[in-house]
Amino acid sequence: MNPVAQVLWFSAPVIIAGLLHVAVIRLDWIPALARLSLDAGYTVRGRRLLGDNKTVRGAVVMISSTIIAASALAWVGGELHRHLAVAELQRDHAALWGLLLGIGYVLGELPNSFLKRQLDIAPGAIPRNGCGAVFWTLDQLDSVFGIFLALAFAWRPDAVFALLVIVVALVLHPAVAALMVMVKLKDRIG
Fold it and tell me: Is this prediction's pTM over 0.90?
């Protein structure tokens, strides 16, 4: 099977969930959950743990949407899904696979948010000093590492697949963000 097609199929549930999450933010759906920050306002060294942008709504929407997207792709994809799936769990238990993808995505973003809050870097901002490229790369890949970690008990990618996922993330993440800016779902890329 074509590894690029497998990488895209592997990534599709999270991409779909991310698009839905941006729409939920933009349309201000489930506002009560948007007011609940994941860090509950706790601070470390006088700085917020994660900040106001990491919300219960975001976690709930990303995880549930990833479950739904993985399940829908398995159902709609049928035999194609069976061929493109990278693991038995993905092929035979798409909802559980989606749950792990969603949890990995959400948890993968937290260390980067924590680090940025501790360094007084605003949410979504890239520092102007020499660390800008490092933080931009972390912003694109933090969730990829979280996903790989969450899936580790059921599946581990080979080096080529992992590298392809990283390359696709570095290309697709900013490309999808640019598309969302064009259709006014987001205010800026990043």
Answer: yes
The answer to whether the CB of 91 falls within 8 A of the CB of 84 is: no
- Give the integer Cα–Cα distance in Å for 148 and 101: 8
Contact 142, 112 (CB under 8 A): yes
Per-residue burial over 4-25, b if 16 or more Cβ lie within 10 Å, else e, is eebbbbbbbbbbbbbbbbbebb
176: phi then psi, degrees, rounded to nearest 5: -65, -40
Record the tokens describing residue 143, joined without a space.
């969730």
pLDDT one-digit tens code per residue, 95-112: 999 999 999 999 999 999
For residue 119, how many other CB atoms are within 10 A of its CB? 11
Tokens of 75: 């159902």
**Whose structure tokens read 């989606």?**
98
Q: Which two tokens stand for residue 2?
A: 């074509």
| Single-letter amino acid code for the residue at 150 | A
Q: What is the DSSP letter of 5?
A: H
Q: What are phi and psi of 55, to 5 degrees?
A: -115, 165
Q: Any idea which residue has 């559980």 for tokens?
A: 96
Q: Count CA atoms closer than 13 A to 8's CA, side-chain side.
A: 8
Structural tokens at position 49: 């743990």
List the alpha helices (DSSP H) in the chain.
Answer: 3-27, 31-34, 56-77, 79-84, 88-92, 94-118, 132-151, 159-182
The residue type of 178 is A
- The pLDDT assigned to 190 comes to 65
